[in-house]
Amino acid sequence: MFHWNGPLPEPHIRTLADMKGVLAAPDIGADDPDRPLYFMYRDLALNEEDRLWLSARSLRYDMTVIPPGVIGPEFVKTKGHYHPENPAGVRYPEVYEVIEGEAHFLLQRPDASDVVLVKAGAGDVVVIPPGFGHVTINPGNVDLVMANLVSTAFSSDYAPYAAMGGAACYEMADGTFVKNPRYPGTATVRMAAPLPVPAFCTAPGTPIYGLVGRERCLSFLNRPEEYIEAFNACLRDVGENCVCAPRP
Ligand SMILES: O=P(O)(O)OC[C@H]1O[C@](O)(CO)[C@@H](O)[C@@H]1O
């Protein structure tokens, strides 16, 4: 179990049946639909003061545990979703912190014109910029424990990933990337690394829970339109691209 000093509600559990439509091997799951894949502890706060501060600003702190494993031929991963636009017409962003284990954040524009893989380890803080859908993969052999801060002003949109059979590429259990044939053209994954973002007070090794109570650091989550330059500087291209192989 991960370290958390506050009240812990029952987790929401994503099962194999919930992953229908987003897997590399669509038939996996029929025989074990209740297999739990990952555990989401939503809306956490260490104390009442923090809870009130977060809810007054329409923010939520979650922790998610993704045990290692495979789903058929691919690594275990989250279902994947997009965030809708805020009242100013900019899609809501999100910020994640890897607490334990290893994470591959697979981001993509809805038309897959840009697919980005951010590899992150314990202590890394990764901003999901507006306009990118995201799937989180556990490529390791230990639990991935991560936290996120996100606006509560919207519901995630799962339909586009489900309609397209998942993300533009699948990360297979041998570490290779295989193209999802439902997307047109070739798919290239651009490798990127998280950068510290002073405007969001994010830096490696700095737990994002410490931003609770700091108005200026978290206003980007509800008012992303004021931070477009900072979003453009939150990921660094590592100069490696990977073309997703056609499905055998
Ligand atoms: O909603 P999905 O795609 O299953 O992904 C789960 C993740 O997304 C969140 O709902 C936040 O966006 C987290 O609670 C969790 O880590």
TrEMBL record:
Keyword rRNA-binding among UniProt keywords: no
Ranges for domain Glucose-6-phosphate isomerase prokaryote: 14-180
Keywords for this protein: Gluconeogenesis, Glycolysis, Isomerase
Biological process, per Gene Ontology: gluconeogenesis; glycolytic process
Annotated EC: 5.3.1.9
Pathway, per record: Carbohydrate degradation; glycolysis; D-glyceraldehyde 3-phosphate and glycerone phosphate from D-glucose: step 2/4
KW Isomerase (keyword) present: yes
Domain of life of the native organism: Archaea
Gene Ontology terms for molecular function: glucose-6-phosphate isomerase activity
Reactions performed catalytically: alpha-D-glucose 6-phosphate = beta-D-fructose 6-phosphate
InterPro entries cross-referenced by the UniProt entry: G6P_isomerase_prok (IPR010551), RmlC-like_jellyroll (IPR014710), RmlC_Cupin_sf (IPR011051)
GO cellular component entries: cytoplasm
Similarity comment: Belongs to the archaeal-type GPI family.
Protein name: glucose-6-phosphate isomerase
Annotated organism of origin: Methanofollis liminatans DSM 4140
